[in-house]
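pls design
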């Protein structure tokens, strides 16, 4: 029985598109799904391989010799071109790179969180990977938005390059590297230690992550290099915190700007909105994150302490 070559082409094309979509099924959250040029080339790589293998198994159904040779040759060309594009990354720019890395990092979060880990050393490593990947996803989402809007592309980083110097071991252990400073997750006890009990607003890298900044009209708290940093709030207590907030301390500034018109999302009874947070250190750091911002009501605060 002779099969239609158009049917064969439709089967390969459909399978290629489906394989591209399947690559995203292992991402941790739907908001980590971005178009990935690298994944598109990988789908073409697999589609070309499938075309050659399937035609080889069904040659008795496809009897046009010249067309079969053309399909095999075309599959080899597409395979080679797609493999070169994947490995060379020649068409991947700043934004393409980050849009590919976000779902890649998301897979690391999913596997690190859900793997059946029993060794405490491996669990510690997995937790560190989760925290790092969530932070980097938030930073990449912020940079994608900044670069695509034309507002955030820069020629060079404004960071002082310090020459390496020999120091005693204890000094090396206590000196923080400014370029690697990021907001770390806070637990409830740490927040209450600075702000006390009651309703707080917070910013987090993702809906599944814990807060990396918590604040009220009176002040806020963040954690840098394992240390809690108390911040003053540059906001009128009568002003709605949903309009954003600026938190400051000596040499530290954190600005949180909710996205205007962004749809609200539910998070464990808390309503959150997409927002940008920009951390600025006078010592030479300016880094932004795209995540979620929300304020708990008094009822939420009361239930969380029970």
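designed seq:
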């Amino acid at each position: 029985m002779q099969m239609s070559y158009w049917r064969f082409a439709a089967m390969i094309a459909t399978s290629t598109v489906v394989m591209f979509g399947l690559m995203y099924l292992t991402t941790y959250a739907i908001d980590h799904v971005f178009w990935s040029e690298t994944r598109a080339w990988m789908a073409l790589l697999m589609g070309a391989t499938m075309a050659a293998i399937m035609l080889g198994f069904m040659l008795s159904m496809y009897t046009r010799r010249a067309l079969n040779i053309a399909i095999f040759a075309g599959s080899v060309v597409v395979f080679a071109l797609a493999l070169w594009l994947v490995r060379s990354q020649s068409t991947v720019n700043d934004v393409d790179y980050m849009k590919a890395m976000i779902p890649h990092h998301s897979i690391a979060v999913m596997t690190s969180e859900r793997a059946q880990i029993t060794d405490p050393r491996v669990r510690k490593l997995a937790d560190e990977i989760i925290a790092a990947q969530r932070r980097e996803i938030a930073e990449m989402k912020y940079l994608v938005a900044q670069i695509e809007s034309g507002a955030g592309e820069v020629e060079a980083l404004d960071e002082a390059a310090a020459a390496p110097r020999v120091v005693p071991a204890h000094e090396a252990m206590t000196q923080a590297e400014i370029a690697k400073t990021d907001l770390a997750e806070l637990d409830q006890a740490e927040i209450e230690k600075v702000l006390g009990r009651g309703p707080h607003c917070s910013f987090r890298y993702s809906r599944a992550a814990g807060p990396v900044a918590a604040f009220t009209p009176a002040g806020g708290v963040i954690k840098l290099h394992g240390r809690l940093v108390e911040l003053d709030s540059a906001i009128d207590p009568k002003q709605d915190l949903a309009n954003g907030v600026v938190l400051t301390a000596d040499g530290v500034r954190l600005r949180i700007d909710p996205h205007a018109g962004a749809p609200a999302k539910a998070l464990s009874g808390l309503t959150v909105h997409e927002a940008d947070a920009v951390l600025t250190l006078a010592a030479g750091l300016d880094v932004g994150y795209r995540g979620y911002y929300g304020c708990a009501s008094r009822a939420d605060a009361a239930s969380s302490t029970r």
